[in-house]
Design brief:
By secondary structure, the protein is an alpha/beta fold. The chain has helices spanning about 5-15, 15-20, 25-40, 50-60, 85-90, 115-125, 150-155, 170-175, 180-200, 210-220, 290-305, 315-325; strands at about 45-50, 70-75, 80-85, 100-105, 135-140, 165, 260-270, 275-280, 335-345, 345-355, 370-375, 380-390, 395, 405. The N and C termini lie far apart (about 60 Å).
């Protein structure tokens, strides 16, 4: 069966999950770009285990990444997806690969002390003739779900063919989005705005943090009309008042009180595409330290966005920020943002481009970033952000919400 026929047939069998994904031509372009980079790196086979990269290349989407799974991408020939048997059986519900290109390892291999599923997978890679003759195999050595035991099984099973770090090859291909991907992110932005509005409404005196988190998560799923929400890679982050000097805190049973400032960092998600958004909400009058950050951060954020355009090194955006906040006697040692797109737990970043002064990557149209101006001082934190897409002339903001301190 031809690739286009497989896509259509699988879309019919899998309901709307695959039908709403990019066309087979889009997937072909992605694979072509990946193989071009494989050729440049001398890779005869690429082993992909990052669930975001599996989704990018095949459309496969399931909560199965907690067990070993991988996509074998040869430089020539058909890709093969290997997963747990119970997951492989239904892979056609979301991905376009035909059943002859999906294999499930036996259930008896799940969570064994003395045997790993990739022992079996390595044998099947050999049997299928996917192992390059005289070549090397690229592997995602920094992927979240590739454990040392999994790597050891592949290294042993594919020996003497060497395994080398592919240095996030697929992630870097993903850095430039197609028009179809940007459209999905604009839908995700509607979800993000709806969730942030729900967050602002639920932050009130007497509300427990967990209630705020619940309202945010409800809004993240309901979205905005036809812009429904997928599950986010990161749960709502809600550092509050003195504890806001530490980012990435979640929630507890703390009761919000007058004078509290709640940092809300969330994402809107649609078909795995993430658009993060951060705002700080203060109950009553903001303390002096917090009020003093609002204007410099706003000025700095505008300077960053004004500096971002095609042909400009990413580091220039960070330097524009440093110049502005430096005039106010402030510094920010952490990065200013990062590339975004497809995300799975535990992170919605693409693990490629960071907005910092030493980043030499040159901006291109279609790149998408979360520009997060987070300031973490002693007993105080303030965050405001925009997610943006680089256009032919500058950047477009995904969110319609103003980037300011929200007073309640």
């Amino acid at each position: 069966m031809a690739r286009d026929d497989v896509l259509v047939e699988n879309a019919r069998m899998g309901g709307d999950q695959l039908a709403a994904l990019p066309t087979s031509g889009e997937y072909a372009a992605r694979l072509e770009a990946v193989r071009a980079r494989m050729g440049e790196s001398g890779l005869g086979l690429l082993v992909v285990s990052d669930p975001a990269n599996l989704y990018y290349l095949t459309g496969y989407n399931a909560w199965s990444f907690y067990t070993p799974q991988l996509l074998a991408v040869p430089h020539d020939g058909e890709m093969v997806l290997f997963a747990r048997a119970m997951d492989a059986a239904g892979a056609h519900r979301t991905c376009f690969l035909g059943p002859e290109h999906v294999e499930g390892y036996p259930e008896r291999l799940v969570h064994r002390r003395d045997e790993h599923p990739f022992d079996w997978v390595a044998d099947r890679i050999r049997d299928r003739g996917l192992l390059p003759t005289g070549g090397v195999v690229g592997i995602e050595m920094d992927a979240h779900f590739l454990t040392p035991k999994a790597f050891a099984a592949l290294e042993s099973g594919l020996a003497p063919t060497p395994l080398v770090d592919c240095h996030e090859l697929v992630n870097w291909v993903r850095a430039v989005k197609s028009d179809a991907e940007i459209a999905l992110m604009r839908t995700a932005a509607r979800v993000a705005d709806a969730a942030m509005r729900a967050a602002v409404e639920s932050v009130r005196v007497g509300a427990p943090q967990y209630v705020v988190a619940a309202e945010i998560q409800r809004a993240q799923v309901l979205g905005d009309g036809d812009a429904w929400g997928d599950f986010p890679a990161i749960v709502p982050l809600l550092p509050t008042s003195e504890s806001a000097d530490t980012p990435h805190l979640t929630w507890s049973d703390r009761i919000l009180a007058d004078g509290d400032a709640v940092v809300v960092e969330i994402a809107g998600v649609h078909r795995r595409y993430h658009v993060p958004l951060a705002r700080t909400v203060v109950l009553g009058s903001p303390p002096d330290g917090l009020a003093g950050l609002e204007a410099p951060v706003a000025e700095g954020l505008d300077a960053v966005l004004d500096s971002m355009r095609p042909g400009v090194p990413v580091g220039d955006a960070a330097r524009a920020w440093d110049e502005v906040i430096g005039r106010h006697g402030l510094t920010k040692p952490s990065r200013l943002g990062y590339s975004i797109g497809i995300g799975y737990p535990p992170d919605w970043g693409e693990r490629t481009i960071s907005i910092r002064a030493d980043e030499a990557t040159v901006l291109e149209p279609g790149m998408t970033f979360h520009v997060i101006c987070g300031m973490w001082l002693r007993d105080l934190g303030y965050e405001v952000s925009h997610s943006v897409v680089v256009t032919d002339s500058g950047v477009d903001r995904f969110s319609e919400l103003p980037a300011e301190l929200v007073r309640r």
